[in-house]
Amino acid sequence: MIYSAIFLAAFALATIETLPDPLLVGGTESRWGSFPSAAFIRTPTSSYCGAALIHPEFVLTIAQCVIDSSSLHPPAHNCGRNNYPSQLHLVNVNNDIALLRVDRRFTLPSNTIELAVRRKRIVPDEAECLLPGWGIQRATTAGFIESRQKYLTVDILNRDKCNEPHIHQGHVRESMLCGGNLFQSSNAACSGNLGSPLYCDGQLAGLLSFGTNCGLADDPPVFSQVRYFNRWIDGEILKRVVN
What we know:
It is built from two helices and 15 strands.
């Protein structure tokens, strides 16, 4: 079984907010309502991380955003406002994905948010996908934060290409997607974009896990592939939600 460890913590682990730290360089300004399921969480282990709303009570992000991977201990209590994830259901850190349950159910339908449709089919090589985030003028944490959401176009790359010795050296597994810039680029994700959702054909296909290169060559973004975890996600939600 690929899910070798599930941790449950009854803490207010994170706060869903609307304006994160710098996330990407370049990009194209999003139209209003283009990514209504995209969310961001603030955690003790990372200033901000991306996430996706997949259920009125649950958001999906990556494990490294909400847990100390060196000790596998849940992070300390974090105060904030808005909706608070109150439980953490975690696949082991080798499968970089986490399911957070908020303490206040989102009211749907809404004219500003909606649930992500999780992808069930394989994303083919060369597919054109979209990665939303907020930008900076240059690839430094001191850069000016854009107030409007932007997105990057991400072309899916062949996994063998991404695993070449001078790129990701065999670390891109079957449960991952690799895409984006192989060469130096002025349009790329930065480290603040971890956990951000990748949409392919309008469906939630991945969550940014590593390769946040801010435009450097030979370090394309790699995503936890959501379809690989759909059975686990459905099972965990079913255990904890009556209807």
